[in-house]
Amino acid sequence: MLVDVLRCPRCDRGALREDRAGYICAQCSAGFPVIGGLPWLFRDPQGAAGEWRARLTLLLAELRADADGVTTALAGQGLLPATRERLTRLGAALEDHGRRVTQILEPLQVHVGAADRDALRALRTRMPVSQGLTNYYVNAHRDWAWGDAENAASLDLLDGGGAETLSGARVLVLGAGAGRLAYDLHRRHGPALTVAMDVNPLLLAIAQEMYAGRTLELHEFPLAPRGAAEHAVLRTLRAPAAADERLRLVAADAMCAPFQPGAFDVVVTPWFIDIVEEPFPALAARINSLVADGGRWLNLGSVAFAFLSTQRLLQYSLEEALELVQRAGFAPPVVREAALPYMQSPASRHARVESTVAWAARKTATVAPPDSRGPPEWIVDATLPVPLSADLQSHARSTRIHAFMMSLLDGRRSLNDIARVLVEQRLMKPEDALPAARAFMLKMQEDAGRRINV
């Protein structure tokens, strides 16, 4: 049963038991709801729900603005008939897409107000930039619409790396996304329990529908459409068959995973280790803590560590990563590599063949995991004072200057006028003020037109 492997992500000690409203910690009495059928096991479940609610609200507002832009373009003169047809199709798809996403995530109870877009763009959210609602949305189409060949190739490579003996095991798939690999592993090998975990409620909600044997119709917006008709394609997503009750979905953060130490015989990390915003040595130790003695870590995906592009030290090669796996308490990994098709949508001219790595590493020693990276207690408990750290004070000063600069925009002042005010306020030297004002306003102009990650 799922509850047998759970541990409280709030106190990191107590076991969770099922309650009428969800789950409750036997030690600290913290409660964790079930939202839309998904166990919501974040350290701060209400805060996480608010984060994703804000992202969804902003996404819907951005879709509305995008659709309005299409409507404005359609009002123009001299459009080619093909252009008018393409824009009409795209505008209708954007409108419909917003409605469909809202329906899928209805349990988050989003209500869009007129001021939401600007307010939320200003406040943003704290989720990692690589984990927005829409970052891996196209993967859902690959998983459940057109990607059978890709899905099968990934499963075969992982099997060859050590997945073939999962029968009767407890398996955790970290970063499961829309859930196809977890589903395929479970159907092929029949583990006693497979837990598919992710932070993204949209992908998890899609997986939930697929596991239940239902269908969804969702729009795909290809990166490089093959033709006018492919700028928006309504796909039917479905699984080959419903999953059994031993395949479970959990909404949680891998940096604060809600599981007992050594709860799983096998931990699988598909396309995960190089997109998580944590240095790989710490992540490897964190994975070690979830694997039972003698259990295995199965990894599949790239070894690019692209999110650390400014930190050369942490951009590990495959050879370094394998050595770090051993330092994290695992035997030398068994490694396989293959060139696999990746995101080859039939509607897109953009497609890849990815040099993909799979490894299987058996746990030989227990390594202490790093501390959980959940929010601090003053975030979880809204009654506690917010500590005024030196970093926050410095950021506050920068933000006030930012706000002051934006307040100077009144439709009448020139860049020279703005630079003069900066000098008068003794914020900058005369020789620095104009270049700084020019660079700042150019960035603001670019940011204003850029769709932010949601």
Descriptive report:
The chain has 454 residues and is α/β, with parallel strands linked by helices. The protein has 3 domains: 38 residues, no CATH class; 347 residues, Rossmann fold, CATH 3.40.50.150; 62 residues. A 7-stranded mixed β-sheet has the order 9-6-5-10-11-13-12. Helix 8 links the parallel strand 10 and strand 11. Helix 1 runs antiparallel to helix 2, helix 4 packs across helix 5 and helix 5 crosses helix 6. It is globular. About 3% of the residues have low confidence.
| The CATH homologous superfamily of the largest domain | Vaccinia Virus protein VP39
* Helix amount: 25-40%
**Mean pLDDT over the full residue set:** 88
Determine and state the CATH class of the largest domain.
Answer: Alpha Beta
Poorly predicted regions: 111-115, 123-130
Q: Proportion of β residues?
A: 15-25%
Q: Please give the count of helices.
A: 13
Order of helices and strands: EEEEHHHHHEHEHEEEEHEHEEHHHH
Distance between the termini: 34 Å
**CATH topology (level 3) name of the largest domain:** Rossmann fold
Oligomer: single chain
Largest sheet: 7 strands, mixed
Count of discrete domains:
3
Which overall shape is indicated by the principal axes computed on the Cα atoms? globular
Category by helix and strand content: alpha/beta
What features would you highlight for this structure?
3 domains, globular, 17% strand, 39% helix, 454 residues, four-stranded antiparallel sheet, Rossmann fold, alpha/beta, seven-stranded mixed sheet, 13 helices, single chain
What is the compact description of this entry?
The protein has 454 residues and is an alpha/beta fold. The protein is built from 13 helices and 13 strands.
